[in-house]
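Case study 2.
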Amino acid sequence: MENTSYDIRQLNEKIHQASAFVDLLNLELSKVIVGQRYMVERLLIGLLAGGHVLLEGVPGLAKTLSIKSLSSAINAKFSRIQFTPDLLPADVIGTMLFNQQKNEFVVRRGPIFANFILADEINRAPAKVQSALLEAMQERQITIGDTTFKLDDPFLVLATQNPIEQEGTYMLPEAQVDRFMLKVTIGYPTKEEERHIIRQNLNPQASVQINPVVQPADILAARKLVREVYMDEKIERYIIDIVFATRNPEEYKLQKLKPLISYGGSPRASINLALAAKAYAFTKRRGYVIPEDVRSICFDVMRHRVGLTYEAEAENVTSENILSEILNAVEVP
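Prediction:
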């Protein structure tokens, strides 16, 4: 036992030093992004855990700006794809073109060949395009013609979705939404933050340059360390209890939730909840996971993985309401 505590202490010191760049990134991003600390923190968790992030919020909440600024601060290749109803899979992944001079087909790579992909308004594109992107997200590779290309590492898709407009949009199927590690819903800034935003935007001298403070290699090294973050068996059991409570609520004395849930979290939910909790601990410069880490990140990992029945929708019950009930009922280690 003494040996284990010594190992954890060593790991804690190692991670405390290795995670110093998180503060550098936050400092750099705060130059242009006012407030929205929750969103920035979640983007960093996705980045460190190697998981894709779906951002949902009304227009004008700095979703695009945050993603672009993050890629500039990491000295990584950034690509923005504006999703529209007439977009084709070839517009995303690339296609084969005939080169008349060489008399052969050559590959023209699409915007997917970058480290950071901003899929703007992903729900505007038809299913074929969504599938092409989501296959790349899952496999980290794409096939054009008969050639398979590995995508660059780090590879992170940050998709935005507008919840208020339904005309001309295509709902993401549940199986595809499950590919996103986190679904983050973004709210409005406070009065004080909004005043700061107005001043910053109206100031003629306010043109701020984001400087690269981290290299992609640093992110890849950090990802390996995130997986080393210590997680006790009690925390593992806690994560499993939360996920199982979405599948069989009656086993946790939550019979009233049974008619409201059409399906619960898959094993992917358990994996992502554990990995995101480790990444959250890393951003807090800790080498071990505490229950609070799991609770903090739970909504973002689980909100798109709990299916609602018609009864739940009729009663205006959201997946957040269900998750709150579960977190209150499941015993904290």
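The chain has a mean pLDDT of 84.
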